């Protein structure tokens, strides 16, 4: 944590603690600073985001040629007016569809066990644990949203979106599941982002309350 940020938090801690909604606002501030990379010193030797994006593009093209994934549709560039704040040196704004797969599909045997997750089993707030019901894959593979261990899911309708109903899926039978169609799913196919970092970004009240939310491949981080 930089000295300036430390002084800022110390200066406002007592005031925030005493205010009726102070703790919630302080939590929001800390989370926002964390998402902006301002709670820790940046390591000069870390690879720049541009290098990672080039590696992802090469792997994406390889998977397209081998038939593992479909050729992705080109996404519009991020406009200056869409950028909410200045990034740390070496970071870049991207759309999630550039660094992973949005709303993927699973391929599994009909008899395989899988996890069924309706919306009530998706947690609100900053809890990360979800529940599931074990079912045969053939019972849930049609008519539901697909996901797998490591995928990030986020509610796309009100009021669940405002309540930050989202999670990183884990512990699913055979690593796969399906459930509520009221979710957007991000699959970290190229190991481009730490799923928990993305989860906290999506749960950030600043993100939820902004007009920057875009559905499908247009989701930004």
From TrEMBL:
Stored InterPro entries: Restrct_endonuc_typeI_TRD_sf, Type-I_RE_S_subunit
Keyword line: DNA-binding, Restriction system
Protein name, UniProt field: Type I restriction modification DNA specificity domain-containing protein
Species for this entry: Geoalkalibacter halelectricus
């Amino acid at each position: 944590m930089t000295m300036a940020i430390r002084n800022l938090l110390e200066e406002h801690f007592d005031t925030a603690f005493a205010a009726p909604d102070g703790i919630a606002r302080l939590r929001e501030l800390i989370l926002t600073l964390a998402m902006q990379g301002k709670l820790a010193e940046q390591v000069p030797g870390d690879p720049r985001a541009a290098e990672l994006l080039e590696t992802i593009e090469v792997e994406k093209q390889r998977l397209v040629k081998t038939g593992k994934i479909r050729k992705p549709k080109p996404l519009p560039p991020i406009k200056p007016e869409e950028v909410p704040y200045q990034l740390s040196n070496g970071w870049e704004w991207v759309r999630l569809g550039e660094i992973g797969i949005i709303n993927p599909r699973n391929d599994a045997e009909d008899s395989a066990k899988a996890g069924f997750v309706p919306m009530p089993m998706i947690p609100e707030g900053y809890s990360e644990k979800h529940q599931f019901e074990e079912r045969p894959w053939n019972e849930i593979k049609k008519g539901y949203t697909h996901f797998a261990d490591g995928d990030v899911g986020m509610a796309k309708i009100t009021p669940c979106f405002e309540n930050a109903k989202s999670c990183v899926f884990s512990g699913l039978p055979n690593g796969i599941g399906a459930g509520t169609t009221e979710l957007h799913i991000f699959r970290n196919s190229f190991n481009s982002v730490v799923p928990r970092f993305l989860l906290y970004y999506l749960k950030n009240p600043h993100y939820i309350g902004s007009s920057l939310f875009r559905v499908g491949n247009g989701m930004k981080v």
